[in-house]
Structure formats: C-alpha cells, structure tokens
Amino acid sequence: MRLDWLLGASRDPMLVCDPAGVIVRANPPLAALFGWPLDELVGEPVEVLVPAHARSRHAGLRRSSDGARAMGSGRFAAVDQAGNEFPVEVSLARLDADGGPLTLATVHDVRARVGAEQALRDSEARMRAVFETAADGIITIDERGRIERVNPAAERMFGYAEAELAGRNVSVLMPSPDRERHDGYLRHYVRTGERRVIGSGREVYGLRKDGGVFPMELAVTEMRIGTARMFTGLVRDITARKDSERHTGTLLRELRAANEELSNFAYVVSHDLKAPLRAIAALADWLATDYADRFDDEGREHMRLLISRAHRMGSLIDGILQYSRLGREGGTLRMVDVNAAVAEVVDLLAPPPSVVVTVAPGLPRVWTEPTRIRQVFHNLVSNAIKYMDKPEGTVAVACSDDDGYWRFSVADNGPGIEARHFERIFQLFQTLAPRDRVESTGVGLALVRKAVELLGGRVWVESEPGKGSTFYFTLPKAHRDGRLES
C-alpha cells in the first residue's frame, strides 16, 4: 500500500518491475510519457519501453546477478507505443518485497535538455569556426591582462604561435608607451569601471614579434564567465588602408595644385588674349566700314568671316573664363525662386517670334547659388533657340519631384541628337553643328554640367533625331551648407 501511495503521489514517471522484468506497477505520468494505457502497460515486459535494437542488451543487463547496479542510473534510449524513440534518464532503486526483490525505476524525459545541449554544441562549433577562420585577429585575456587564446589570424598578424603567448601579458603585443600604461589602465578599469577602449573602437599600434610596429583598429568587449571577468579584443591590421590614405592624400594635394595651376593658366591666358583680340575685331570693323566700297563680293565675304570669327573667339574666351571661375570661386547659397530666375533668363534672351518659350507654373524655390542656376538655364534655353530648325519652334521649361531632388527639364522640338553624341556634347569645345552655320564655342554644355555637379546634381539628355531634345538636370532639395565647394 505504501508503494501504491508513492507511485500515485509522484509527479515523475515511475514503474516497478519484478525479477523477471515484468512491469507490476506504473503511475499515470509514466503511462502518459510512453503513450500506453495504464492497465495495458502492467504485465508487459519492461523491454516494450526500449527500442528494438537495444532490447536484447537491456534484457541481458536485467538478468545479470547485479542487474540494478549494472544498468545503473544514466541516459538511455526509450520508445513510446507509437514507435517514437527519445532519450530518457533512468534512476534505479532496489525494493525488498515479500514476493522477492523489485526494481523501482524513475524516468525523466530529457529531450528538451538534449536539444539544448545539442544547440550549445552547435553554437560552440560555430563560434569555434568563426574564431579559427576570422580574417581579423581575436585575442582573449583575463582581468590581469594575461593572454588565454589567440586565433590564427592574430598569430599571423603578430608573428607568434598561440603557445608562445598563452599566459603572457597582452602588453607584449604593444609598443611603448602603451606597453607601460596598459596594466595600470586595466587595473583602473577593474577598480572603477571607467572606460577608455572597452566597448568602443579606436586606432592604436601593435608590436610584432620581429619588432615591427603597425597601425591597427582595436575593439574590446567584456564578458563574464561565472565570477571571472574576461576581455576579448578584435584587431585589424590597417597598414594597407593607412598607406592608401596617405597615397590618396598626396594625389589629392597634387590634383588640387594642378587644378589651381590650370585654372590660373586659363584665367591669365584668357585675359592676355582679349586685348589683342579686341584690337583685331576693332580693326576689322573699321576696315569693313571705311573700305566697304573697295571690296568685291569675295573680299566682303572674307571680312565678314574675319569679324565673325573674331567675335566667336571673344565668346570662346568669355566661356573659358566662366568655366575656369566655376572651379575657382565658391558662390553663396540662398533660396532662389526658379520661376523668377527663368523669367529673367527668357527676357534677356528675347526669343525670336518663331520660337515660343513656355515655363510651367509653380516652379519650386531651391537652395542654390543664384548666378549659377541662371547660367544653367541661360545655356540650355539659348541652345534650344540657337539650334532650332523648325519654322515654329517650341521650348518648354518644367520641373518634377524626384525623391530627394528637383528634376528640371528644358525640352525643344529642334533637330534632335543621335544617342552616340549624348556624352560628347557635354565635353569642353564640342559642338555638333558646323561652326560657320551656327555660332558656337562648345563651352555652354560643359559649363552646365560643371555648374550642376557643383550644386550637387547631375545632368543628362534624352533625344531622338528630328523630334527634338530634352535636357534634364537635378538639384537637391536638402539644405546644404552656406557655400559651394570650389
């Protein structure tokens, strides 16, 4: 009766076997665990709860003279009535009864524990794989600064084998004066919790076994294992990056110097050219006026070409000056009403009656440089007028929202441009029309591209020969700092 009470009161699955291995008693938790009706389980050999592949061994252990001790208490494979195999831990106890010795078995389902243990093993295997294969060096130290582990990347980086470093102070990997400061810093942190490196990345220097010093990035994290405090350092050799930064800095300085020299050259040469050119143009105008009656038709045509090319040369010099100033002078940014700016441009250009320029209402206000935005619209609209080949020309200025940018467009119904020329037309001194038919310096669109890019946008063209062209450019909506970069 006392045994029945114990089985009924226990929440753990329990059963009792006689010397022949027959189940003589079992409690409801055990029946529920194995999926057997309680009344069907009693009278069955205990091997019904053991997988088929392990039953003969289990029976042999049970029949041994010291079966309970031989089977012991440990982890075994079990099987439920549906044939599902699962791990259990079994604790055995011998009971003395009138009919002979009995064995009390307490069974614990350890599937959750086994799953957690497997997950832990898998996690450890993954961490081991990361530790061994990481491209960055990994170093673990204790709270006294003694090295416990280094990964292969750290071995290669510092030139030491892990066995050479184990137990040594991590300061062996630091050049002076960091080496002398390290232990004091670590003691200060352990005592006060005041951080300098832990939890944040910084650039420091490392010391190789051969005495070489190199720059590296260091990030340190803290962890606790029980009461012990551990630190893990992630180190990356940035020698190549530093060399690249120095090289890039040198190139940028040289490029700035070359750009400045080129801009100065263009500025000075352009100014020096304008004086003799003005004299040539004035002399040509004087000859054409005062000696008009002495020229025949061929002479008058030559004078016309001379005057035309002198004026073109003047325009070219002005264009070069404008282009060079874009790289030399930063303009003040302010809010500009694009409606007003375009209206001023169109009024200044005074399009002929054969060309109608329309401006979409409600153009935005943009944070930009007033002179440059007018310069951009002036070049685009004047080009559309200049190259118009239709008796009734149209030029349309519009704007649309393009995420963080305003996208402006200047569309015309002129001759159009072949796709193979889309990039070429934005290069300096490039023009598609014969220079004797259309006065062009080839500077305008190059100036447009440079101005738009300095304003933080981009410019492109879409066109089809015979059907006109649409030039697009974008300007950022975001408020930038108060001056343009030169």
Automatic annotation (TrEMBL):
GO molecular function, one term: ATP binding
Enzyme kind, highest EC tier: transferase
InterPro entries on file: BphY/WalK/GraS-like, HATPase_C_sf, HATPase_dom, His_kinase_dom, HisK_dim/P_dom, HisK_dim/P_sf, PAS, PAS-like_dom_sf
Alphabetized UniProt keyword annotations: ATP-binding, Kinase, Membrane, Nucleotide-binding, Phosphoprotein, Transferase
Segments forming a coiled coil: none
Membrane-topology descriptor: Multi-pass membrane protein
Subcellular localization(s) per the UniProt record: Cell inner membrane
Domain of life: Bacteria
Species assigned in the record: Massilia cellulosiltytica
Function, as annotated: Putative oxygen sensor; modulates the activity of FixJ, a transcriptional activator of nitrogen fixation fixK gene. FixL probably acts as a kinase that phosphorylates FixJ.
GO BP annotations listed: osmosensory signaling via phosphorelay pathway; regulation of DNA-templated transcription
Domain Histidine kinase: 268-479
Name the record gives this protein: Sensor protein FixL
Annotated ranges, domain PAS: 1-68, 123-193
Catalytic activity: ATP + protein L-histidine = ADP + protein N-phospho-L-histidine
GO cellular component term of the entry, any: plasma membrane
PANTHER family xrefs: BACTERIOPHYTOCHROME, TWO-COMPONENT HISTIDINE KINASE
